[in-house]
């Protein structure tokens, strides 16, 4: 075993050498904490005049309450709308109209929630709101951030919200880094919830189009919602329709001002930048921002599952099967173990489930495994598969358990273990080679684990996982009392 570990270590350091030059990752990352709590991570790479800039805020849908479900996703949309200086032709003239829109919109929302409301009053307020929104359009400058970045050579401008995090990212020429600092600090300092009700309607439509009528997303949402009974991981990032309808500018603004702040923010700058210059730049533009409130730890603990949960979702689509098992998250040793189990069971065409279910028995058209729905708190290991006609989800489920039982009763041989361990290392180092990939990993691990060095020590921890550890984890977690099974079927297939 020691020889196998040394081979993985050799592979790791060879690939690190390619990705980072002669230095190790820990030597290359320069970190700085500002007085307001903001964390900056810098990696200098001067081979091309490009910098990847990631801003990750350690706030996601897991931090929402029953009053604010969906707000993190809504804010992802809203923070593209501009600030008091960007996205408007004249903010001083725009502001009173925004205030009136919020006033009328709040009245309309309250009236819609009232039992036995007067449809005539609703119609009057709807017309008033529509007229105000039409008047407001004259002050709106669309796509101001993306256009500014594109005009200055920026690429990959995007944002995403997860259960645990919210991230804004861009890669741009290194001589435009000050433009990035100006734009992003202004976004944190002076955000404006412009076109709030219009964007809320957009998200309603997104919910209908991409979740309610999308078989794969509907299936996944049903799986997560049923697997968790208490923990807020059970709630969809986008929110339910009633959640979206009840989000107000006031609730959204309060969540934004409280949590989207330096104390919860990690910035990574990777590329053609000097660390000292980066620290000075971030201090100049972000250093005077108020710290904000630390994102709270979620106090809800998911109770131990003491029996199988089984759900049949009736939907007019091809049948699907998903099986989820509760598992720990990082830095628990078994989280590393599941990374290897993931590789053994479901990574690529040489994985056990693909070879058995797709190629040999031809029971499935596809099969995949993954962790869900977040990484900050204990989560799920999921097997997802689609049966090949005329085979059924019942046949497919039985075949999956056969493969899981092999892990419970037989040790993974050293050749296979070495192969999957090396594949994990290679996949990780492939991400480190790109500026954007490294910036993403640094901000994610810093926010989720509290220390980006989780990334640097990952390979050593993976090396410690033995075939016996995999067998023990399989026996601990792959039990009927710990699983949730969701089957999607047409009504005529029952």
| Major sheet: arrangement of strands | 1-2-6-3-5-4
Specify the number of helices: 19
CATH architectural category of the largest domain:
2-Layer Sandwich
Largest sheet: 6 strands, mixed
Helical percentage: 40-55%
CATH domain fold name of the largest domain = Cytochrome Bc1 Complex, Chain A, domain 1
The rounded distance between the terminal residues' Cα atoms is 50 Å
Radius of gyration: 25 Å
What is the name of the CATH superfamily of the largest domain?
A: Metalloenzyme, LuxS/M16 peptidase-like
Query: What number of domains?
Result: 2
Q: Give the SSE string.
A: HHEEEHHHHEEHHHHHEHEEHHEEHHHHHE
Assign the CATH class of the largest domain: Alpha Beta
């Amino acid at each position: 075993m020691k020889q196998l570990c040394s081979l993985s270590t050799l592979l790791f350091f060879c690939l690190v050498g390619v990705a980072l030059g002669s230095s190790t990752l820990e030597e290359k990352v320069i970190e700085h904490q500002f007085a307001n709590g903001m964390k900056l991570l810098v990696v200098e790479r001067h081979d091309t005049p490009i910098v990847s800039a990631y801003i990750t805020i350690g706030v996601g849908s897991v931090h929402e309450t029953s009053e604010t479900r969906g707000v993190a996703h809504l804010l992802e949309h809203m923070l593209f709308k501009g600030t008091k200086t960007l996205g408007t032709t004249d903010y001083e003239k725009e502001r009173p109209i925004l205030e009136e829109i919020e006033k009328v919109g709040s009245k309309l929302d309250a009236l819609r929630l009232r039992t036995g409301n007067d449809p005539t009053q609703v119609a009057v307020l709807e017309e008033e709101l529509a007229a105000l929104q039409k008047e407001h359009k004259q002050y709106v400058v669309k796509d101001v951030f993306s256009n500014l970045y594109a005009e200055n050579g920026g690429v990959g401008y995007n944002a995403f919200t997860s259960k645990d995090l919210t991230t804004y990212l861009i890669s741009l020429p290194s001589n435009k880094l000050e433009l990035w600092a100006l734009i992003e600090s202004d976004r944190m300092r002076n955000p404006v919830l412009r076109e709030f009700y219009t964007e809320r309607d957009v998200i309603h439509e997104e919910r209908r189009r991409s979740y309610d009528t999308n078989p794969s997303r509907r299936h996944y949402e049903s799986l997560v919602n049923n697997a968790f009974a208490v923990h807020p991981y059970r709630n969809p990032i986008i929110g339910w329709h009633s959640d979206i309808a009840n989000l107000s500018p006031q609730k959204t603004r309060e969540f934004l001002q409280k949590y989207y702040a330096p104390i919860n923010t990690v910035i990574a700058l990777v590329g053609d930048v000097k660390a000292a210059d980066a620290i000075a730049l971030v201090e100049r533009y972000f250093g005077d921002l108020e710290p904000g409130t630390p994102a709270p730890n979620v106090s809800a603990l998911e109770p131990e599952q003491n029996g199988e949960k089984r759900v049949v979702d009736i939907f007019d689509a091809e049948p699907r099967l998903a099986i989820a098992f509760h598992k720990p998250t990082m830095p628990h040793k078994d989280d590393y173990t599941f990374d290897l189990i993931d590789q053994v069971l479901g990574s690529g065409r040489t994985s056990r489930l693909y070879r058995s279910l797709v190629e040999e028995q031809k029971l499935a058209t596809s099969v995949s495994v993954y962790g869900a729905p977040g990484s900050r708190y204990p989560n799920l290991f999921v097997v997802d598969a689609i049966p090949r006609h005329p085979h059924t989800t019942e046949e497919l489920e039985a075949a999956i358990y056969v493969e899981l039982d092999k892990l419970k009763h037989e040790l993974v041989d050293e050749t296979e273990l070495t192969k999957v361990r090396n594949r994990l290392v290679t996949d990780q180092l492939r991400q480190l080679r790109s500026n954007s990939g490294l910036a993403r990993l640094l901000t994610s691990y810093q926010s989720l684990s509290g220390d980006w060095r989780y990334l640097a020590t990952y390979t050593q921890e993976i090396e410690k996982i033995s075939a016996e550890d995999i067998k023990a984890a399989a026996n601990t977690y792959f039990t009927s009392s710990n699983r949730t099974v969701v089957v999607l079927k047409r009504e005529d297939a029952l």
